[in-house]
Design a protein that fits this description.
Layout: E1 13-17, H1 22-33, E2 37-42, H2 46-57, E3 63-68, H3 74-88, E4 93-96, H4 111-138, E5 145-149, H5 164-186, E6 192-197, H6 201-210, E7 219-222, E8 227-228
Parallel strand pairs: 1-2, 1-4, 2-3, 4-5, 5-6, 6-7
Antiparallel strand pairs: 7-8
Helix pairs in contact: 1-2, 1-6, 3-4, 4-5
Length: 229
């Protein structure tokens, strides 16, 4: 059923990274249900293709478009945005969901493992954010939305050594989202930035997108029994 406030997004394009499973797949499905065109990207797209077929069979008003992209490779990301520009004009909503965790401690972790996490969790998110903003700006889209899917690890450091570097990358997401919000305000644009944490992220995404354009929701922390904004 269409959510009140989501009518303005119908037939517009959302990019969801890491859409092959879990939160990304749930978010992609929820947006297609609301009538959006959704580009779902991942390194392998078999699961996204299956989800696209399911959405079509269910008669959802939107469309899911699978796109193969290695987010650890900037050229792949730039090629994806170029293809979106050529085929669909551009991005109106960017949902940075992709994330990578490796069991690498600070005292003995591998540099390659740290780089893998940093490249996906920090650099890819930043590149997608930059390219999405430029896409909106060049088309004079002033009501776009950039949503970063974060983790509670971006707000607390758990006593688990193999998660400490990962946690640092998620703290970076918290900082990047606030910095983005400040830069958008300085640019005098109405494009919004929001940071979301689990549990029910798909529902939270629809809630955030359905709010009026003048409402800025900066941060939502989702727990099974409570919501803090």
């Amino acid at each position: 059923m269409a959510r009140a406030g989501m009518e303005r997004w119908r037939d517009r394009l959302a990019l969801v990274t890491g859409a092959s499973g879990g939160i990304g797949a749930a978010v992609a499905r929820a947006l297609v249900q609301q009538g959006l065109k959704v580009v779902g990207c991942a390194r392998t797209v078999g699961n996204i293709e299956e989800l696209a077929a399911e959405c079509k069979s269910a008669g959802y008003p939107g469309t899911l478009i699978p796109f193969r992209c290695d987010l650890s490779n900037e050229e792949d990301i730039l090629s994806m945005f170029s293809a979106i520009r050529c085929q669909h004009s551009g991005v109106d909503i960017c949902i940075n969901n992709a994330g990578l965790a490796r069991p690498e401690t600070l005292l003995s972790g591998s540099t390659s493992g740290w780089k893998d996490m940093f490249n996906v969790n920090v650099l890819a998110l930043s590149i997608c954010t930059r390219e999405a903003y430029q896409s909106m700006k060049e088309r004079k889209v002033d009501d776009g939305h950039i949503i970063n899917i974060n983790s509670m690890s971006g707000h607390r450091v758990a006593p688990l050594s193999v998660a400490h570097f990962y946690s640092a990358t998620k703290y970076a997401v918290t900082s990047l989202t606030e910095g983005l919000r400040q830069e958008l305000r300085e640019a005098q644009t109405h494009i919004r930035a929001t940071c979301l944490k689990p549990e029910d992220v798909a529902e939270a995404v629809i809630y955030v997108l359905s709010t009026p354009p003048h409402v800025q929701i900066g941060d939502i922390q989702m727990r099974p029994t409570e919501q803090v904004t």
